[in-house]
Amino acid sequence: MKNISVSLLLWIFALSSFTIKAQSIEKAVDSLISRDFNDKNAPGGVFMIAHHGKPVYQKAFGKANLELGSDMSVDNVFELGSMTKQFTAVAILMLEQQDKLKVGDRISKYIPDYPNGDKITIHHLLTHTSGIKDFTKMKSLSDIAQKEMTPKMMVDFFKNEPVDFAPGEKFDYNNSGYVLLGYLIELVSGEKYEDYISTHIFDKAGMSQSSYASDRKVIKNRAYGYHKKESGYVNKTVISFSVPFSSGSLMSTLSDMLKWQNALNQNILLDSIETKKAFSKYTLNNGDYFTYGYGWHLRDIDKVPTREHGGSIFGFKTMAVYIPSEDIYVVGFSNCDCNSPTQAVKDIAELTSKKSKQ
Known about the structure:
With 358 residues, this protein is α+β, with helices and mostly antiparallel strands. It has a single domain (27-356), classed as Beta-lactamase, CATH 3.40.710. It is built from 9 helices and 15 strands. The protein has a 6-stranded antiparallel β-sheet with strand order 2-1-15-14-13-12, sandwiched between helices. A hairpin with a 2-residue loop joins strand 7 and strand 8 (232-235). Helix 1 (2-34) runs antiparallel to helix 9 (342-356) and helix 2 runs antiparallel to helix 8. The two termini are 33 Å apart.
C-alpha cells in the first residue's frame, strides 16, 4: 500500500507540474495567435497544442459562419488542403507494407502509357522530385476547376505537358505527383481513394470526424470558408474536389488530427520500417540532401528536428508541426485563405519546446 501511495503521489505531482507549465504558456500562446486572429466578428481559426499525445491547449477564435454569426469551436471541421498529402503518402506505404507495390517501382508498371513512366518512380512522386508539370500552374486549370473528374481524367489532363526537369534532378513541390499517387492507390487496391483512406486510415485511427471533402453533403460542425475582398468577406470559390483529389481534398478536426499523429507514433498504421521511410531525408541525383520525406517537410526549430506541413485551398489554410524528440504536436486551422496560421503554429511550437525543457 505504501509503494502504491508513493507512486500515486509522484504521478499526481508530475501531472500537476505539467499542468502548471501549460497554464504558464497560455497567455503567451494567446498573444501569438491574436497577432492575426484578433477580430471576433471575422472568420477565425482553431489551435491546439498536444504533449505526449494529450491536448494541453485548445482554443477557437472568430466565426465559423458569418451568415449565421456562429462562433468558432474547437470541434469545427476544416478542409485540410495539402495536409492531405500525409494521408496519401501513408496509404502508399501501407500498400508497400502489404507487398502490393514498392516505392522503387516505376509508374509505367501501373500506367504503361505514361510519358517517361519508365524513369519516374513512386519515390519521385512522394518526394516531389519527378519533374512532371504541376497542374496547379497550368493556365487551362480553370477549364476543369468545377468539373467532376475521374482520377484518370486528372492524370490525362497533365501527363502530356512538357516536364520541368529529369526525375531526381531537383526538388520542386508538385501537386500532380500526389494526384498520380491517389490514382495508383486506386489501381493497386481496387478501391476508390476516398474509400481506402476512410476504411484503412480514418477508421483504424478512430478519426470519426474526418472525410473526403464535399460542398454537397451536410457535414456536422463544418467551418465555412471565406475570401477577403476590398468590399469585405465573401464565400469561398466553389471547386470540384475531384480536381485536387489526393493532393488536397480531405477534411478533419483538431482532435482527429491528434488521433492521426498518435496512430503514427504508435505504429497503428505503419510498422517501424515503413514509418522510417516516411520521415527520412533523401538525396537528389547529385547526392545533395533535400528536406522532404514522404508527405512531410523535415525541418527544424532552433536545431531541433521537426516534421511539418501546411495546406491551402479556397477558403482555408492549415498548418501542423510535430517535434518528435519532445512529442509536441501543434496544429492550426483558418477558415479564411486571407489568414494563414503557419507562422503562429511555428512560433507556438518553438515556445512550447523551450518551456518543456525548463
